[in-house]
């Protein structure tokens, strides 16, 4: 190892001093070139290491061997501080050795340092408990159960990323009130106060061996004036009533490190709603900005610009960037509730909240800054975060970190800090004053009670007077007078910005009215105003979407939690596959694990609303195809049915037990079965079960036979789907397509269903089977249904009779259900509409499935068109025309449901072209409109 001239004297002095106290050990170690080099690196990097080796030369023989954890015996209490300190120093020396010789990554060094503090705290706590128990007995709760003090590590200790020479931020708590059981009992508050005091003494008092750890208790409730230890109940009450923004940030990293850690995790779970709001908490921006401003003022006052932690582009800015996203989203996304910074940043990166390149910049900077910070502290075990001024010290740092000189290290330091500062400014850019171009509307809103509608008219609102009246009524709401100054300031920025965005939208008046309704809905939750305040680009997208979709506007006003899904700009915002939808749902249900079915229903509803909004957003903003959106909506409904059906079975089992053998399955028909669901569509369902032994009963205290048992499960399933919750309802279900319609049984046996299809089903009911598929329930019943469906569809039929039946039924449906007229064309039931496409394909399957089994393998329209073209029944050019027509009609239909309108549209060029294409194929395949009376069959629900 070549040592620069500036450091040769440092190394020589260190070796001379060490040789003076341990000549034989030094000689033995330096005989081996590799070990000598490692020792030289240690001495050049750390005067603290040299001092410890001179005090305890035997540590030279154990530089990479962990010492034994000390045992603090009750009969040796005076020696406790010495044992703790020597153990801590021996381990710290080992960590320096490993770090400077490249044996540990920076993450490993931080984790080892944190684990050492955990161990010392736990050993000291056990000793303190034992000493107090000897005098006052064991602390117990009112029921007699033994109690233990729980020590929480906060800050870097809680995140398992403790600096080499950092103090440890601790908070003490105990589960319950009560008293100790000794001859001189103490109530638990006083008892644990004394345990905590003794723990602090053991860790922090200074003697000839130095100290183990500086202990900082200022993060406890009420700070330095608060009690040293509080009960869990008192802790919860404090955070409910007194908790402040900075405490939320502090408790992100909280971790029980000693005592009853299981009970400690229970308290953290109880405090979770304080730290992580259930809603999207964009108000965290302002709180962190205020904290950063205070830090910057202190940095300027104390001239700490080069401070590795607090200075511009320092470690604290990285922490703020990560903690901001955790606080905003952690209430809804448990994966973000990480204590350590790098795991939290990895979770944010994985979910798209921090872009890949930005995450790389922050990770590299964090590792660099933390390693440099640790080396600065290892130099003399000083609690410092500033690089030294002395040239010699700088040279030692540069050499130890592998740089040829200090300037090279300084250049890289500057690059990292610049990258962090740039990212911090991007994230925390202040949102003050009116948005660009909104000055006139901001002035109008500030003085609305004395203004007129002229500024609105100038902005582009056609009916400015009506909008002015709405805004004036809103401005007079009593609720506005009760807003905090912070919330009112947000409102005064957001509302003009919304009006400006509405004026530029496709429907200014509609957009403004819907935006005003949203603002009124979220006034009591200022964090939603903060979201709009902090995300001006998202605000513009919100107005664009709300102007196009009454469905989305109504739901986001009723459930503001959906705002994030509506505004999400991540690449993975929309679920592309059934498997991903199912996996996401299972994660939501696991997070809401409870026997309370209503709680699970709320979680299900929030999940459904969230994913439906993501699909709607992809449709409107990302221009996702209508066919893909309709398919995803069907996947979503399928996942929900798959969760609700087992929940209904579980609920019934509590009263009536379980039914051995057999099984139940849900069959989707119509647009659900065809994977072409719309926004707000109901679900066409049929339920089937395996009768098995008709005499069997459920095994509960109140047994039910198979027929009643399955009927109850179906009733419960439908009730759960349609039950109102604070998060809305899941779906309306329509069971009229079951055998014999509304007069039939709620649930059918497989055998009766097969017999009905074989003996009594109308042609249109067999048509309906073309789009039917199992979506949930027992796999054997699903397989049996698939066989019945295939057997029915593949039955030999007279093509002429199929054509006649299909044409007659289609004409009857047009006569009864077609709403086309002066208002426009009925996309579903009109001549040449979606039902014509469905009937055409269903007829083709009924006519040709007997000889072409592949026609039974799909329920989706595009695939059925391709399959029928594949067997030559539809000409290639007709198939292409049908595909285009179906896509166009479905897109118009989906747009109508998104905007809450009936599926009746003006006869535009694209609609006319689609109609002509459908009717042309309809006629070329021999389906003429029937003039004879329709058969005496009930009208189908398709």
Automatic annotation (TrEMBL):
Single GO cellular component term: cytosol
Catalytic reaction(s) noted: [glutamine synthetase]-O(4)-(5'-adenylyl)-L-tyrosine + phosphate = [glutamine synthetase]-L-tyrosine + ADP; [glutamine synthetase]-L-tyrosine + ATP = [glutamine synthetase]-O(4)-(5'-adenylyl)-L-tyrosine + diphosphate
InterPro entries: GlnE (IPR023057), GlnE_rpt_dom (IPR005190), NT_sf (IPR043519), PII_UdlTrfase/GS_AdlTrfase (IPR013546)
Region (Adenylyl removase): 1-430
GO molecular function: [glutamate-ammonia-ligase] adenylyltransferase activity; [glutamine synthetase]-adenylyl-L-tyrosine phosphorylase activity; ATP binding; ligase activity; magnesium ion binding
Gene3D superfamilies per record: 1.20.120.1510, Beta Polymerase, domain 2, Nucleotidyltransferases domain 2
EC assignment: 2.7.7.89, 2.7.7.42
Region annotated Adenylyl transferase, chain positions: 437-942
Domain of life: Bacteria
Keyword Repeat appears in the UniProt entry: no
Protein name, per record: Bifunctional glutamine synthetase adenylyltransferase/adenylyl-removing enzyme
UniProt source species: Chiayiivirga flava
Lineage: Bacteria, Pseudomonadati, Pseudomonadota, Gammaproteobacteria, Lysobacterales
Underlying gene: glnE
